[in-house]
Amino acid sequence: MERVNSGSSSDWEEEAESGPGTEPQCPPQDSGPRRNLAAFWLLGLCNNFAYVVMLSAAHDILRTQSNETATVTVSNSSSQYDCNQISTAAVLLADILPTLLIKFTAPFYIHLVPYNYRVSLCILTAAGSFLIVSYSTQIAVSLLGVVFASVSSGLGEVTFLSLTAFFPSNVVSYWSSGTGGAGILGALSYLGLTELGLSPRNSLLVMLTIPALLLVSYFFLLLPPPSLPRWTPPSSTSSPRAPDRQPLVAGQSHDSTGGVVILGLSEKWKIIKSLLRYMIPLSLVYFAEYFINQGLFELIYFPDISMSHSEQYRWYQMLYQAGVFVSRSSLRCVSIRRIWILSVLQMCNAIFLLVGVSYLFLPSLGLPVIFLVIIFEGLLGGAAYVNTFNNISVESKAEHKEFAMAAACVSDTLGISLSGAIAIPVHNYFCGLH
Fold first, then answer.
1. For residue 154, which phi and psi values (nearest 5 degrees)?
2. What pLDDT score does 143 carry?
3. What does the alpha-carbon distance between residue 153 and residue 147 come to, in Å, rounded to a whole number?
4. DSSP string of 324-364?
5. Domain count along the chain
6. CB under 8 Å to 14, separation ≥6 — which residues?
7. What CA–CA distance (Å, rounded) separates 394 from 23?
8. Is residue 75 part of a domain?
9. Distance CA 352, CA 362 (A)
10. Stretch among 12-16, 44-48, 395-399, 415-419 having the lowest mean pLDDT
11. Which helix (H) or strand (E) holds 402?
């Protein structure tokens, strides 16, 4: 069998052997080249950054680019909701539906596309998203820019989670921590730049540095194994594995050459069925939290404080992302196998805030209480994500891992998409009350 060699095998082998191996039943430990750990953290950061920023800017995108009839403030009526005519869930759908399409279809063809071409497309679409939204003067054009961010994030997540199959399993925790870092740094940077007086447009232009960092992280920092198909499609039928990888299950056999398994449809379906115990709870967690974020955040408004509605919305997004960052970085300290518990708690959060919005008692609780609830929401979401993919990584057979990681990442996107579809009529219902 042929192997596709696209990196320096001697460099990889020398550095890959410098750390201890990982045990499949334990949280990841330090192993492998440290530059690869740093690279995966930065890849996670850069991949999710544009996606996060677009959600943080959602209220501004809809409010500043609407004409006078597109922005409706109903404070002069019996309604106590301060609303945009278009729900921020519209930005969420533009930011997630292309990702959903990519994640549903990519596991069945993406292995035919070399990794370098995939990452190059991620870089170009991320940069395009910032430029389009920055210079747009119409909501429709801005939503097109958000779609570009979605393509970059969705293709990147499928690509980089698949890429972890070629490295020791501990890179999953660094990738996940990086995606959490994207949340807090993306939301905080947008909040900080706008608080300093930069316009939303100029704030987005500053963030063009992120696609450049993605390019450096992948093409210059990451040390790829020789089996990684970088510029040419894989021609081997053996399993992807880093040179120091050990069988995940006792007695499991590996082809000595390393490479890519070409799985049949029936085998892929069996793998997907085995993953449902993780995929369904993860979908529920993300359904609940994004129903909160894009359906209810805009309606949780404290009118008698110094912060404007837009500023409150940005703080909600930032605190949520802070919780996500902490929990996505917690795998080395806490490992959770029962993901369904997290989904139950997150649904309770959504029900509590929905009832609070309905009966308008949230302002009486005080802003700090809402801040704590939002941080808790982020902690649950981040914990569900990192533990789901860690569990799949350590339990999958080596020859199935690349497909399993790519297939499972549709779970959160499916939950987010459903929440966006439901959040729009919920927004319209509350904003139409008189």
1. -65, -50
2. 86
3. 10
4. HHHHHT-TTT-----HHHHHHHHHHHHHHHHHHHHHT-HHH
5. 1
6. none
7. 8
8. no
9. 10
10. 12-16
11. helix 398-408
Task: Report which secondary-structure segment, H or E, holds 209.
Answer: helix 209-216
What are the φ/ψ torsions at residue 83 (nearest 5 degrees)? Answer: -125, 150
Q: How many Å apart are CA 271 and CA 417, to the nearest integer?
A: 23
Of the CA atoms within 13 Å of residue 19, those in its CB half-sphere come to 24
- The answer as to whether 195 is a domain residue is yes
Write the CATH number for 129: 1.20.1250.20
Under a CB-based contact definition with an 8 Å cutoff, are residues 409 and 384 in contact?
Answer: no
Residue in 315, 292, 293, 312 with CA at minimum distance from that of residue 304: 312
Using CA atoms, how far residue 76 sits from 80, 157, 308, in Å, is 9, 45, 17
Tokens found for residue 7: 């990196």
pLDDT tens digits, one per residue of 225-283: 888 888 887 664 444 444 444 333 333 333 434 445 577 788 888 988 999 999 999 99
Contact 147, 134 (CB under 8 A): no
Task: Grade residue 39 by pLDDT with cuts at 50, 70 and 90.
Answer: very high
Choose between 363 and 263: higher pLDDT. 363
* 139 lies in some domain: yes
Structure token digits, residue 391 = 């569990």
Q: Name the residue with tokens 């997907």.
A: 272
Residue 126 inside a domain? The answer is: yes
Cβ density class 189-227: b for 16+ within 10 Å, e for less: bbbebbeeeeebbebbbebeebbebbbebbeeebbbbbb
| Residue 217 and residue 39 in contact, taking contact as beta carbons nearer than 8 Å | yes
Owning domain of residue 366: 9-23+31-69+80-431
pLDDT at 11: 46
